[in-house]
Amino acid sequence: MRHFAVFSAFLFAASVSAFASVDTGLLALVPAGAKIIGAVDVTRARKSDFGQYLLAKAQSEDIHFQEMITQTGFDPRRDLQNILFATSGPGTAGQPSSFAILARGNFDPARIKAMATTKGSAGIVTYNGVDMIVHAKEPGQQTALGFLDVGVAVMADVTTLKQIIDGRSSATTLDADLQSKINSIGVPNDAWFVSLVGGGFLADHAGPQGASQAKALQGVVQSSGGVKLGASIATTFDAVTRSPQDAVSLSDVIRFMASLVQMQRQNDPRAGILATAIDGMTLQNSGSAVHFAISMPEKSLEQLAEASAR
Predict the structure, then answer these.
(1) Measuring CA to CA, how many Å separate 149 from each of 68, 131, 165?
(2) Beta strands 152-157 and 99-105, pairing class
């Protein structure tokens, strides 16, 4: 079970590490009703300077990670190509959130299934011709892993995985606004996300110290962002708010947070690195829309990662 958990955790971590060009095959499998979608083009990221830096820093000495590779033949540092995360958004006490992590890569399903069933409490449940590896003793909402085609793996809650299996013969029709934003932000970036979920759920976690930030987040109706890797790492964020006044409030919060970082540039090496990038940031309002962009030399991002690890 521990080895299966390592495999599952890597899929999850890779999908949220930066919410990639658009893999239309994986996107076609996303279940209807998805409100937040993010992706990483792992192949392109791996070839970038920062990707090479991360590979060099990978914890290859982790015994559990190495055991997983030996037993499954799957090395995510080499075998993952694209990964996509989709969810219906925050759940409630009576209705948990649905999610799916879809990955394209080189997998050996037989070895992975054998490892999952012999090393822990996972079991195999066949549904509509697909073997699902299900966590037999997982508390709460169960998750499962299935291989829908050669080179395509999906980890999801059981209900969502069954929905994907049932609909795999026909492409999903996504919300038109969601699809439009994916086409806009996904094609030029190596990693991206699109959300049709309002910012209220983020505001709930802001705490008493972040009252002004929470209020600004509550005004967000839609958002999207992307990361383009290269000699400079370019990051963009766009939000649509309820009104022009909400857009101004969100911009004011971004400026305030940026000023806090700049004030610490002499005292904290991490703030110093970020402050240099913030000096050249772009922050624009247009009606109820906010656009934010920032760029950082790849070497500076490496320095930031090193400083944060200390």
Answers:
(1) 22, 11, 10
(2) antiparallel
pLDDT tens digits along 74-117: 988 899 999 999 998 876 666 777 899 999 999 999 999 988 88
Pick from 65-69, 135-139, 152-156, 284-288: least confident:
135-139
For the chain, what is the mean pLDDT? 85
What whole-number distance in Å separates Cα of residue 39 and Cα of residue 82? 8
Strand order in the sheet with 36-41: 122-127, 130-135, 143-149, 152-157, 99-105, 80-87, 36-41, 191-195, 220-228, 232-241, 289-297, 282-286
- For 280, counting Cβ atoms within 10 Å of its Cβ (0-12 exposed, 13-18 middle, 19+ buried), the class is exposed
Find tokens 């590896």 and name the residue.
Answer: 133
Q: Are 254 and 267 in contact (CB under 8 A)?
A: no
In tens, the pLDDT along 13-56 reads: 444 443 346 899 999 999 888 999 999 999 999 999 998 888 88
Confidence of residue 187 (pLDDT cuts 50, 70, 90): confident
> How far is it, in rounded angstroms, from Cα 121 to Cα 157?
17
